[in-house]
What does this fold into?
Amino acid sequence: QVQLVESGGGLVQAGDALRLSCVVSGRAFSRYPMGWFRQAPGKERQPVACIGRSGASTAYADSVKGRFTISRDNAKNTVYLQMNSLEPEDTAVYYCATSWKYYSDDAPLSSGEYDYWGQGIQVTVSS
It folds into this structure.
């Protein structure tokens, strides 16, 4: 059974930083791309950042480029999202996901490329 567990969310002020973590079990973590997505109230889920299996390839939504960094530690089965200069518009539930694209260094931003998802974690940025 594949499980993804996010941590690190919370309530912060605009301009602050947070680091989200997602630990994966039940899958050969290092062989699959990983992604972070978010869903704000009343909006559809949107991609935030994605990373290929080795970490060599990354992709970001335009709204977070230059502020967020995705990384992974394959020895710890963990993917991270470092979020700097947070804005109220970043308020959302953040989800990590693992792709079905076996042994790929693609960093796909489409949610259709992912088959397992975490339960989500709330990030709230106050102004």
Observations:
- The chain has a mean pLDDT of 97.
- The longest strand covers residues 18-25.
- The chain is about 0% helix and 50% strand.
